[in-house]
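Now for one specimen:
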Amino acid sequence: MTTPSPPPPSGPPWVEILVSVIGVLGGAGGITAIATVLLQRRKFKADAADVLTDTALILVQPLKARVAELEAEAVSARRQVEAATREISELRTVVREATAMIRRWRAAILAPSATIDQLRVLVSSSGVPERLPGDRAWSDDNPRQR
């Protein structure tokens, strides 16, 4: 003899699914867990915001230090540029003066009535600088300067 099979369930399929889910979750214990998670979403969001804020601060501090270091380097570079610009200006003035002096000497040398004595007087009366601006090779201790 064969036993009769149970009759198929009647009703919508979602009811079966809902009943199965409730059974799987363990009845009231599973529902309580879901309710707890839903109620603690704000706390989870606040904790996540705190973690993000702390991480951002950890990343920003080295960047702030680097920016301060770069600003100090920029100030130093600007000072060096200003000093170099002043030195270039002084050197241009010296070059103009030396060029004018050389032109005067050349004209005096090429003059048909030039004498050695006149040229010596011209050279000795010319303001020849003993040291050029920025010339570090020449010093008071340098015997070639004398």
Remarks:
- The CA atoms of residues 113 and 119 lie 11 Å apart.
